[in-house]
Specification:
binds iron/sulfur cluster, 3-methyladenine DNA Glycosylase II, Chain A, domain 3, 9 strands, alpha+beta, 9 helices, 248 residues, 44% helix, 2 domains, four-stranded antiparallel beta sheet, five-stranded antiparallel beta sheet
């Protein structure tokens, strides 16, 4: 499938309401998976279906899942979602803090350009509408509900890469965490202890130990014991990976 084939099915008004700005740019970015069909408010269901049917069957679950989640969330009560998710709702627009950025979501899609995995995480979080109040009790990934199954993956994909960043350039890592709104936390034996909120109800406690001649740097990521009420452990693993991407 080529950008021209996608372009032909778009409204072709260059209205500028999508993150891509123009229809041709949208077509190119759609094939790169940096925008989704729901980002074009003028696209009717018939044309969207035609584009979907032209996509090679590569098992592109991300695009399909995002479409499903978007349909489910846009049918929900935005003020109620905002209240539960720690977001804001104004003029039928949800504003949510994600990785230190303010992200806006309307009933016709995201107003900001983002990787599709980040969009999926935000949409899953909004759809789940967890009801727990953060307990203030920090737990390891393995101690979350079903966490043991993915604990090794979480260590390899999240804690080890952050430890490597610490070893490589401590100052840069601390600056990136600070830019995300991370705040120092007291009472821990690590060299640096910071709390960062990738999503409003899901904090990570980042514990960092500098390395020495004998041992390399170490990182431990803990989260609130209620985190799995807002995202399941699979999604929490992806949230940790998204944190690593954002820190790079
Ligand atoms: S929102 Fe749709 S019609 Fe408007 S510029 Fe983007 S792709 Fe084109």
């Amino acid at each position: 499938m080529t950008p021209i084939e996608v372009y032909k099915e778009l409204p072709r008004t260059n209205c500028g309401k999508c993150p891509a700005g123009t229809c041709m740019s949208f077509a190119v970015q759609f094939l790169r998976r940096t925008v989704s069909l729901s980002d074009c408010p003028g696209l009717d269901e018939e044309s969207a279906e035609k584009i979907r049917s032209m996509l090679p069957d590569t098992g592109d679950w991300k695009e399909k899942r995002l479409e499903e989640l978007f349909r489910e969330v846009s049918a929900m009560d935005f003020p109620d979602i905002a209240k539960r998710a720690g977001a804001e709702c104004r003029d039928d627009l949800l504003r949510i803090r994600y990785m230190g950025r303010d992200i806006a979501l309307g009933r016709s899609g995201f107003e900001d350009e983002m990787d599709i995995l980040d969009k999926l995480l935000i949409m899953m979080y909004l759809k789940n509408r967890g009801t727990a109040s953060p307990s203030g009790k920090w737990v390891a990934f393995r101690d979350l509900k079903d966490g043991l199954i993915r604990a090794e993956s979480f260590h390899g994909a999240c804690e080890i890469p952050i430890a490597k960043m610490l070893q490589h350039d401590t100052e840069r890592l601390l600056k990136r965490l600070s830019a995300m709104g991370a705040e120092r936390a007291g009472g821990f034996s690590a060299d640096y202890s910071l709390v960062v909120y990738p999503l409003p109800r899901i904090p990570f406690l980042v514990l960092l130990w500098r390395g020495d001649e004998e041992f390399g740097a170490e990182c431990k990521l803990l989260t609130d014991s209620t985190a799995a009420d807002f995202l399941d452990v699979e999604a929490l693993l992806y949230l940790g990976m998204a944190l690593v991407r954002a820190l790079k």
